[in-house]
Design goal:
Blueprint (H helix, E strand, L loop, with lengths): L1 H12 L8 E3 L2 E8 L4 E8 L3 E4 L2 E11 L8 E8 L5 E8 L13 E9 L2
Antiparallel strand pairs: 1-5, 2-3, 2-8, 4-5, 5-6, 6-7
């Protein structure tokens, strides 16, 4: 019992990791890849907009970057749907520095975040 109490107190006393302060961008620059042809396309879009990339539809809800560093590591919340399908093939946060961490799984197309835009 005392061991559990000591463990609980130690966990409470452990420092809380601070989250990095971020700013919200006005949009994002994404890169789309057609795996069949090997061609890559840059897609610039504003938050709240939807863009067409080949047979996919990409919606950008939000793009964030480290406070005071717009060229820093961007992360964006995206929804990607294939044409004619209401179910998303991807919905979630993508991180520019780690695109494989939460990657879109599609047999032909790939999309990832490059950076946020601020104007």
């Amino acid at each position: 019992m005392i061991r559990k109490l000591c463990l609980g107190l130690a966990l409470l006393a452990a420092p809380v990791q601070a989250q990095e302060a971020t700013n919200t961008g006005t949009g994002a620059v994404l890169r789309g890849l057609d795996k069949l042809t090997g061609r890559a396309y840059d897609i610039e879009m504003r938050a709240g907009d939807t863009a067409q990339f080949a047979r996919t539809e990409i919606s950008l809800q939000e793009c964030r970057y480290p406070e005071g560093d717009p060229a820093g590591d961007a992360f964006a919340f995206l929804t990607v749907r294939e044409a004619g399908n209401s179910e998303p093939v991807f919905r979630g946060w993508m991180i520019a520095s780690s695109p494989a961490l939460n990657a879109m799984d599609h047999q032909r197309y790939d999309v990832w975040v490059l950076r946020c835009t601020t104007s």
